[in-house]
Protein: N-carbamoyl-L-amino-acid hydrolase
Organism: Paraburkholderia domus
Amino acid sequence: MISVNQDRLWRSLMDMARIGATAKGGNCRLALTDEEVQGRRLFMQWCEEAGCELRIDPIGNIFARRDGTQKDAPAVMCGSHLDTQPAGGRFDGVYGVLAGLEVIRTLNDLDVSTRYPIEVVAWTNEEGSRFTPGMMGSAVYSGKLDIDVARARPCMQTGVRLGDELQRTGFAGTATYAQVPKAYFEAHIEQGPILENANLPIGVVTGAQGIYELEVTIVGFESHAGTTPMNLRKDALEAAANMIASILDLGHRIDPDARVTVGHIDCYPNSPSTIPGKVVFSIDVRHPQQPMLQKLVAEIETICDQRAMTHGASVDVQTVAAYEPVAFDDQCVQRVRQATSSLGYPAMDICSGAGHDAVNLSYVAPTAMIFVPCKAGLSHNELEDADPVHLAQGASVLANVLLDEAM
Amino acid sequence: MISVNQDRLWRSLMDMARIGATAKGGNCRLALTDEEVQGRRLFMQWCEEAGCELRIDPIGNIFARRDGTQKDAPAVMCGSHLDTQPAGGRFDGVYGVLAGLEVIRTLNDLDVSTRYPIEVVAWTNEEGSRFTPGMMGSAVYSGKLDIDVARARPCMQTGVRLGDELQRTGFAGTATYAQVPKAYFEAHIEQGPILENANLPIGVVTGAQGIYELEVTIVGFESHAGTTPMNLRKDALEAAANMIASILDLGHRIDPDARVTVGHIDCYPNSPSTIPGKVVFSIDVRHPQQPMLQKLVAEIETICDQRAMTHGASVDVQTVAAYEPVAFDDQCVQRVRQATSSLGYPAMDICSGAGHDAVNLSYVAPTAMIFVPCKAGLSHNELEDADPVHLAQGASVLANVLLDEAM
């Protein structure tokens, strides 16, 4: 078994974290901004120093290739993303990219040749904070999203097209995809508290849960807070509060793997002395199994209908987006499990709660992921943190998995 | 018993409603804007045509006086306001002013002299939509608010001082108050649905309920919607939804006269895929009796504490404002009741849910109010509507009450 260089990995992470550093110790490198481009250039410089051949495709994905001994063999691929949330952390995404680079540096140190080439990829715009949808570069790569549609997407802050930003920054590349990868592996911080709570350095990611994004609109009737008797009200927020309380209670009760979140609520006219006439809120529903996910959504819709009726309001529940659960490739998952075990690291199987580029890759290639803990499960937050030891352990698992796969 | 001229009252209301008319049939005459000043000038023109003497005080209140026969006798006063909400109706406030004018016109028609003078007042800035607090002109008049504090208040839209707007529009008057009024009566639309539901044209207003304005701040912990297990969350919106549902349920159960409203809610960061870390919401609590009002507030605070604990959040409940209930003068209320009965109008006693200039007047003079129904109880809404017959009936009650009081 091989091990990566913990100090070198940490130094690279901290060097990258200086680009777009925020006051509270986090990072802001929104996709294709000058900061993110500076990060891309640093990554490319490091890859060249490690002897890699660089290619950029039309959506700006960066492929850094360490050649194998067999001519025209498909690549064993790993990667993640360099862009961050507006108030993001130092590890979400960038860890998976620099862990891949650290594997290549380690293989160089050991002077190991592989039969298949190894490619480290930095996927464009995983976060979707400037341009929706997120996971864009991997979606285009896997054929899930049309390149012209992606290039036409406007920046939510300035309106500039993504295609124009690719052109401006020099990342509208021309590389084509001759072959699908032999396999794809992605190392990532967990972004949740499960591994930390279990005191385990490695999560063997078996798949990603399915997601339904719902939008609930309740219409009641605006009236005067002081003059309208309680029994004559059609209070949209009263209906909403009862729905939200019941929906989240269902999430607690129905199954330990269920995740139900109401993260967004808007109330109209939102005036203290007026009974709300309209409320709009989001529901984010996730579960690893599709039948349970659909059961959850159906029960949520029933709760909304019943509560609206109770409070004299009307309700409309729209499905904004729906993603089925993804099961990663059995052999790839088993390879991660075995490498972890051989390295002597305690681990558990885990299902990814978040979406990752690996989900898109799983549609075109055998795929698996490796999770490491992050402090207090905190992510999408400037206070996001991770233990250098855990980060190195995850990268060592990645190294052995890539080596096995590429031999 | 005397009766007012229904058609003349309606025509004056509709003439006034053309000033600051909105697309949906409502009115926008914010205090001391050009539109409201145009309304003031029209009212003053009508008062002069009715033979009244006009005075304006330093806060811009307009006093239109029909002299009595006794020298230096205190005035029997009535009035309300000409300013409206931004998307206001054609009757809130303006009805009370023009009903007073219609009484004077009717007394002129009948060539009736009174011992005491009768004054119709248009109070400045009752709505508080440009300058807080509302009920400002009557508060200054009754000594509840210092004139210099009032003049220094900035416009919430432009920042201009109220004193400068008084100066600009010519309504920084010099009239002083030699005497408190003998009594004050205010006619107003109910702004709620009680009279309409009871099918009654007149409400004998016995007082105004007390009001507590509370602000609740809940702090939980932001985390990722997809990765944080339900049992490890500190969801501020889950705590808020359970509080709001319980608080409103309490409002329904505790007493038929209770009014509990959550009209305003803000959620942070208000992102669909992030568990809310902070929620702020308002509670508007009203009741005609102070002990019950205090009991309600105490129980609401207990609910907030308990629900916060259940959901692992912290909570802070601040009292933003507190007004004790007001009981109007027994003799004045009885005078309204008797005039209504003598006119043969069905009526009921009612407690005002909203604040009115009459509440401020009640601190310095015997006071009562007369309510007429408004369509569907709707007010602070461009669709606010009222029946010309009811409006005339309310004005006839006012006419007889003023005449009795001024004889």
In short: Residues 378 and 384 of chain A are 5 Å apart (CA to CA). DSSP finds twelve helices and 16 strands in chain A. Chain A has a mean pLDDT of 95. The two ends of chain A are 13 Å apart (CA to CA).
